[in-house]
Write a structure and sequence with these properties.
Strand content: 25-35%
Shape: elongated
Largest sheet: 13 strands, parallel
Strand order of the largest sheet: 1-4-7-10-13-16-19-22-25-28-31-34-37
Radius of gyration: 27 Å
Length: 450
Amino acid sequence: MNRLRNILVAAVVTHATVFSQPNLQSLINGASRGDTILVTPGTYHGNLVLDKPLVLRGLGNPVVRGDSSGIVITIAADSCTVEGFTIERSGDNLMHEDAGVLIKSNHNTLRGNNLRDVLFGIYLFEADSNLVEGNTIVGRWKPDLGQRGSGIHIWNSHHNSFIGNSITEARDGFYIQYAHHTLIERNEAFGLRYGVHYMYADSNTFTRNRFTDNVAGAAIMYSRGIRMRHNIFSHNRGFASFGILFQDCHGMIADSNVVSDNVVGMFFESTTMNLFRHNIIAQNDVALQMFQNSVQNTFTENNFIDNLSPLLLVGKHTGTRWSSNGRGNYWSAYKGYDVDGDGMGDVPMKIQNTFQYLEGRNANLRLYLYSPASQALAAAAEAFPLMAINSEMDDLPLMTPVLLTSLPAVVTLTQSAAPRTAAISWITLPLAGALLLGFIYHSIRRRGLR
């Protein structure tokens, strides 16, 4: 049976005599394998190393304070538990992976700790089958994101679980590289560059997380077999911002996620053979941005609601399937009809109009999106086609939104897209009119020269 050591340590002042707190590393060194060390409230010197299986449990949230160099707590042995501490003041060297907690072993538990003023929050280095649960990480704020570490950094570590953690003021919330079979569940990441950043990480699952108010919600790159369900990617705005970026990803399933109020909802490059179903993509400036090298992706039973532009296509076509098993997607901008009453539109939903096609070739035209001139151009092109655009269309658009009862408690979608651009529409009306007339003149002149 493991021994239980109650280490009652606190600075006591009696008749001007101070009994200093014992050295926590000395207690660790003197403990036997499997011991539990209970630490009472107070502040303890950090840069600790756990080199044998131990339980280090804080009572009343004691502070382990580093000396502003190196790592505050290093877990070097298997089967350790560290819980209930405030961990602060790591070093500041990115090359040395200075962190609040560095895990270099397997089957450990890190639970219920507050990490603050740390470069990296929790760093897993070749560490498998660990549980990181219920920790709060507030990094070290610096105006240059490149000088910050990640909240949770995972390198060459597999079968780890991260549940119910909160991360802010770091570079990335989760940075996951060469880490397979990772579970990320019920975490929140905000005020960061990327909420989650995958690099060469296969067969991972993240579910019921919130990635909000970042430069980008998620960047999933060079990975296969990702499963994303019931997550929220919202309010991610800034230069080149997106809810989710997919770069060279294959064989994914994205189901019942909310992607709302981002500059670009989802961005695709060299990303193939993925399934997107039951998602809400709403109130983004651009719902989807795709390069034509992203092929054989399937979208079915998603709700596209009040996005300023449904698709920005870089290239001519993608070979995307916009329906599956006789079910397309719901588009709030669809203007078709359902005569036979089967719940699907009788005419296809053209996912890009002429103006949106031009926008895909010149991003600066987004300034005129939803201006009266751009809407007039779109309407005119339907009646009198001026040019051949891509053939991306949903042949089986749904007439009513898909009811998704299993979604998380979500960001409220309160207003339509048009009012958000009303002010700019009237200000830019003269310029937009000139754009429209110039385009029509140019198209007629080209036809006359043929």
